[in-house]
Write a structure and sequence with these properties.
The chain has about 300 residues and is an alpha+beta fold. It is about 50% helix and about 5% strand. The chain folds into 2 domains: about 1-115 and about 270-290, no CATH class; about 125-265, Glutaredoxin. Helix 7 (about 145-160) links the parallel strand 2 and strand 3 (about 165-170). The protein is elongated and about 70 Å long.
């Protein structure tokens, strides 16, 4: 949600941020000395410098109760630190500067707090995939970022994390998008005919052409009666369901689309394959551990915050 704006702005503002507060380059040998448990050999010296800067700033989220850098030190064996290091490393490999990475990582682990989870309902919505993790997506058919999210979400539930996650789709049309609500009603019509995902794909693939004749053509392509669909849409048959989804999203704090919730936990990472798979794995681990727990506080070190 709001965190997405942070990463969309990095391309424009990242260079300026890096110039203001550059991280010192770190060689592979230096990295092995500072964080011996982290394999940073495939990063550049500059990226390793960013990693070390972040690791000395953020605290581990569970297990070892200290900074990430100390938890990656010799003699440590906490698996949570390795997971956190993987996330930080991914951000570093994409060229982001330290400050936004610290903000993103801290916000990500804070999102696991039970108080952050929204009571989104996954019972009355079209679902694809199966698994113990339920992802609820609120989207708008005229939102470009929603169209970009179709492929990575499909890959997640059908391939990379098949059997581990399922996707529930909900409507969140914005008033500024004049055809989004009509398109959502068409998708709801298709849902009643067992053709939601086919219609959903067509609407996002052609979101620049959503006039009535276009919508009727897409319905015909997936084996539906376009004339009947448009008639029912304008008769208001699906208005209540679309509005119900929108109000549910507002109650959950949705401000932009696409907005994802992993078992009610708001997604705060980029909606791209690596991050989605990482998030599902963390959610499963959180379930197994019944919440994140810390080990004993280290003697003489700052406690994790």
């Amino acid at each position: 949600m709001r965190i997405a704006a942070l990463f969309f702005s990095l391309a424009a503002g990242g260079a300026a941020l890096a110039q203001q507060a550059p991280s010192n380059p770190v060689t592979t040998e230096q990295a092995r000395s500072i964080v011996p448990r982290a394999d940073l050999s495939d990063l550049t010296d500059a990226q390793r410098g960013v990693f070390v800067a972040v690791a000395t700033e953020v605290f581990n989220y569970a297990g070892c109760q200290d900074t990430l850098a100390r938890c990656l030190g010799a003699g440590q064996n906490d698996p949570h630190a390795l997971r956190m290091a993987a996330l930080v490393k991914q951000f570093c490999s994409e060229g982001h500067p330290a400050s936004p990475i610290v903000q993103a990582v801290e916000r990500y682990y804070a999102s696991f707090d039970a108080a952050q989870r929204a009571p989104v309902n996954a019972d009355n919505c079209p679902v694809t995939g199966k698994g113990p993790v339920t992802i609820v997506e609120f989207s708008d058919y005229q939102c470009p970022h929603c169209a970009q999210a179709v492929a990575p979400l499909e890959e997640l539930v059908d391939k990379s994390r098949k059997g581990k996650a399922r996707l529930c789709s909900k409507y969140f049309p914005f008033p500024s998008h004049p055809r989004a609500r009509v398109a959502a009603s068409c998708a709801e019509y298709a849902r009643g005919k067992g053709k939601f995902w086919e219609m959903n794909a067509s609407l996002f693939a052609h979101q620049e052409a959503l006039e009535d004749e276009d919508l009727k053509a897409y319905a015909k392509q997936v084996g539906l009666d376009g004339e009947e669909m448009i008639k029912q849409v304008y008769a208001g048959k699906f208005d209540a369901q679309v509005e119900k989804n929108r109000r549910e999203g507002m109650a959950a704090g949705v401000e932009s689309t696409p907005s994802l919730f992993f078992d009610g936990r708001p997604n705060v990472l980029p909606i791209r394959p690596w991050y989605l798979a990482f998030t599902v794995d963390d959610e499963l681990q959180w379930q197994r551990e019944k919440g994140w727990k810390f080990g004993p506080a280290p003697q003489g070190h700052a406690k994790a915050r």
